[in-house]
């Protein structure tokens, strides 16, 4: 009976160490914050360790310099760049807590156990880039509200 009690105590001690390590990793991931700024410094995106946008700074001059589609593309690009930096830091934090053959970057991206075919679907939709909009395209005066329901109810 004593042998089992010792084994249980060892298992509990190992469990407590694992929980402490997990808590430490979680705290380190929460502390990660990376930013990327446009070359002109007018737009800055900040993300946390999980790649979630936590801050966005747009200077007033950005509204004069960029068209809406260009500004949107700039935000998406900077968010991606900041996320790449944050994932590098998060990978370094996660690596010691993961099994030896686990790729922390793939784990963060949610692709750790997927094949290349599973990651990239064959009929991948094309997201429009800023260049997809013509120079004459302006959304400044566009009405984005669908008021068709309101019109029918009157």
Compact summary:
With 154 residues, this protein is mainly alpha-helical.
Tags for this model:
mainly alpha; 51% helix; 3-stranded antiparallel beta sheet; elongated; 154 residues; 6 helices; 3 strands
How would you describe what is shown here?
There is one protein chain. This protein is mainly alpha-helical. It contains 6 helices and 3 strands. Strands 1-2-3 form a 3-stranded antiparallel sheet. The mean pLDDT is about 80.
Give me the secondary-structure topology:
Layout: H1 2-31, E1 33-37, E2 43-48, E3 53-58, H2 60-65, H3 68-94, H4 104-109, H5 116-119, H6 148-153
Antiparallel strand pairs: 1-2, 2-3
State the separation between the terminal residues, measured CA to CA: 81 Å
Give a count of the beta strands, DSSP E runs of length 2 or more. Answer: 3
Strand content: 5-15%
- Strand order of the biggest β-sheet: 1-2-3
Return the structural class. mainly alpha
Element order, helices and strands? Answer: HEEEHHHHH
Task: Give the low-confidence spans.
Answer: none
Mean pLDDT: 80
Helix fraction, binned, reads 40-55%
Q: What is the overall shape?
A: elongated
Rg, rounded, reads 24 Å
Largest sheet composition: 3 strands, antiparallel
Please report the number of helical segments. 6
């Amino acid at each position: 009976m004593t042998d089992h009690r010792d084994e249980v105590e060892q298992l509990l001690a190992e469990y407590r160490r694992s929980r402490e390590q997990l808590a430490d990793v979680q705290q380190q991931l929460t502390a990660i914050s990376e930013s990327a700024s446009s070359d002109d410094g007018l737009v800055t995106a900040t993300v946390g360790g999980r790649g979630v946008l936590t801050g966005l700074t747009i200077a007033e001059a950005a509204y004069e310099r960029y068209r809406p589609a260009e500004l949107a593309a700039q935000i998406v690009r900077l968010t991606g760049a900041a996320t790449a930096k944050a994932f590098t830091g998060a990978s370094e934090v996660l690596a010691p807590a993961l099994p030896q053959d686990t790729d922390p970057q793939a784990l963060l991206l949610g692709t750790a156990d997927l094949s290349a075919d599973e990651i990239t679907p064959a009929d991948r939709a094309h997201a429009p880039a800023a260049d997809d909009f013509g120079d004459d395209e302006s959304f400044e005066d566009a009405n984005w509200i669908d008021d068709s329901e309101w019109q029918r109810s009157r």
